[in-house]
Specification:
alpha/beta, about 210 residues, Rossmann fold, Arc Repressor Mutant, subunit A, 8 helices
């Protein structure tokens, strides 16, 4: 089920969009300002964003450069050609002028989602969820801050649940991106990772490696 983020400060328009999208089977997240949207995006990556321009905090124009890789449909009352061209060249996938025809907007959303490349699947194991695109981790829905090395180790384990991942494989896989992970420091990194997750899901297999139960 695709997830759509509505960034709109007008409650009437936000409610209209949310109700229509939910009827179509989409998961909906809402933000009422550009600043709130930026915060939401730290922990969750939608499949598409509906973006107003005149927003409290960060404006739509200020937020757009931070949305690389996510299809963005600007929904704005600005009808001048210069605004449309500028935003489309700045990375927006489409531009719809208010007041809009709801059926047309829904058709444009379906088209943009169809054109969007498939995203790496969310990795989930028990209470742990790892989003490869957002590079974020949550436990029981709460964000967990991991170092680059801890994140890379967890991702490797979550890609092979129930199977032992040897120390040598971890070191070989992580070496190019995480030079601080060495044979002598691996145990420390793993200890910190297990403490931050607090789930007890990662177990050491003596002398061999680690396993996500």
């Amino acid at each position: 089920m695709e997830k759509i983020l509505i960034v709109e400060d007008d409650p009437r328009i936000s409610d209209l969009l949310a109700e229509a999208l939910e009827r179509e089977g989409y998961r909906v997240t809402r933000a009422w300002s550009g600043t709130e949207a930026a915060l939401v995006l730290k922990y969750s990556r939608p499949d598409l964003i509906l973006l107003d321009l005149t927003l409290p905090g960060l404006t739509g124009e200020e937020l757009l450069p931070e949305l690389s890789g996510i299809p963005v449909i600007v929904v704005s009352a600005r009808a001048d050609a210069d605004s449309k061209v500028s935003l489309l060249l700045s990375g927006a996938a489409d531009y719809v002028t208010k007041p809009f025809d709801l059926r047309e907007l829904l058709a444009r959303i379906k088209l943009r989602l169809r054109e969007s490349p498939a995203s790496p699947a969310l990795l989930e194991h028990g209470a742990i969820a790892l989003d490869p695109l957002a590079r974020s981790v949550t436990v029981g829905g709460e964000p967990v801050r991991l170092t680059r090395t801890e994140y890379a180790i967890l991702k490797l384990l979550m890609e092979s649940p129930g199977r032992v991942v040897t120390k040598s494989r971890i070191l070989e896989s992580l070496a190019p991106d995480t030079p601080d992970c060495t044979e002598s420091s691996l145990k420390t990194h793993m200890s910190h990772l297990r403490a931050k997750l607090g789930t007890g899901d990662i177990e050491a297999v003596w002398g061999i490696g680690f396993i996500l139960k």
